[in-house]
C-alpha cells in the first residue's frame, strides 16, 4: 500500500505482491509395476521403464537399485539429470534361473519431493517342454551275431511343438543320438 500525505490529505493505492513458488523437480514413471509373466529359465526378456520430469526444475537421479536376484536394471549412468519436460529410459530385465515365482523392486532416488520412486517387479520362471513325434516308436534288430551290423532302419521325427517358448527362444535344445 502506498500512502501520500500532501497538505493534510491522506490517500492510498493498493499494491500487488507476486510470489512465485521455487522450482521443484518431479518424477513420473511409466509404470508402477512390471509383470513379466511366464518366461523360460535361462531367457532374458526386458521392458523399458520411462522416467519423465514433470516438474519445474532439473530432475537429478542419484541412485537406481533393484532387489530380487532375477532382475537387473541397465542402460543408464549416474548421476542422471533430466531437464524439465524431458524423459529418460532404462531397461529392466527378468533373468529366471530357476522354475518358480520371483519378485523384486526398483527404487529410484532423486531430488523430487516424492523420492524414492518405487516400481514393483514380478515374473515366473518356467521349464521349456519340447515334444517330438517319433515313428516308428520302437526298432527291432532281430538276432545278431556279435561284431556284425544290422540293416539300416529309418526313424522319422515330426510334430515338433514347444511349450513355454518359441523355437527361436529355446536356445538350450540338445540333440541326442
Please provide a written account of the structure.
This protein is rod-shaped. It is built from no helices and 13 strands. It has a domain at 27-126: Sandwich (Immunoglobulin-like), CATH 2.60.40.10. It has 177 residues and is mainly β. It has a five-stranded mixed beta sheet, with no helix packed on it. The protein has a four-stranded antiparallel beta sheet with strand order 3-5-9-7, with no helix packed on it. A hairpin with a 6-residue loop joins strand 10 (100-110) and strand 11.
Strands side by side in the biggest sheet: 4-11-10-6-8
H and E order: EEEEEEEEEEEEE
**Low-confidence parts lasting 5 or more residues at pLDDT below 50?**
171-177
Distance between the termini: 97 Å
* CATH class bucket of the domain at 27-126: Mainly Beta
How much beta, percentage-wise?
over 45%
- What is the total tally of β strands? 13
Largest sheet: 5 strands, mixed
Structural class: mainly beta
What's the CATH architecture of the domain at 27-126?
Sandwich
Radius of gyration: 33 Å
Q: Percentage of helical residues? A: under 10%
The DSSP helix count reads 0
Q: For the record, what is the CATH homologous superfamily label of the domain at 27-126? A: Immunoglobulins
Given the C-alpha coordinates, what overall shape results? Answer: rod-shaped
The average pLDDT value, as a whole number, equals: 85
CATH topology of the domain at 27-126: Immunoglobulin-like
Short description:
0% of the residues lie in helices and 50% in strands. It has strands spanning 2-6, 9-13, 27-29, 33-40, 46-53, 59-67, 71-74, 80-82, 87-94, 100-110, 117-126, 129-135, 156-163.
Amino acid at each position: 500500500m502506498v500512502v501520500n500525505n500532501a497538505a493534510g490529505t491522506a490517500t492510498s493505492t493498493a499494491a500487488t505482491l507476486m510470489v512465485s513458488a521455487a522450482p521443484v523437480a518431479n518424477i513420473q514413471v511409466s509404470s508402477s509395476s512390471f509383470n513379466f509373466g511366464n518366461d523360460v529359465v535361462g531367457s532374458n526378456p526386458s521392458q523399458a521403464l520411462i522416467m519423465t520430469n514433470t516438474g519445474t526444475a532439473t530432475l537429478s537421479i542419484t541412485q537406481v537399485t533393484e532387489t530380487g536376484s532375477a532382475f537387473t536394471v541397465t542402460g543408464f549412468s549416474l548421476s542422471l539429470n533430466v531437464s524439465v519436460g524431458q524423459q529418460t529410459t532404462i531397461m529392466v530385465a527378468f533373468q529366471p534361473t530357476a522354475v518358480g515365482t520371483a519378485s523384486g523392486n526398483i527404487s529410484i532416488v532423486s531430488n523430487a519431493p516424492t523420492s524414492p520412486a518405487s516400481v514393483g517387479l514380478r515374473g515366473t520362471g518356467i521349464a521349456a517342454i519340447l515334444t517330438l513325434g517319433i515313428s516308428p516308436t520302437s526298432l527291432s534288430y532281430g538276432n545278431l551275431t556279435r561284431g556284425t551290423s544290422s540293416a539300416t532302419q529309418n526313424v522319422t521325427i515330426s510334430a515338433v511343438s514347444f511349450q513355454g517358448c518359441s523355437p527361436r527362444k529355446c536356445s538350450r535344445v540338445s540333440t541326442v543320438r
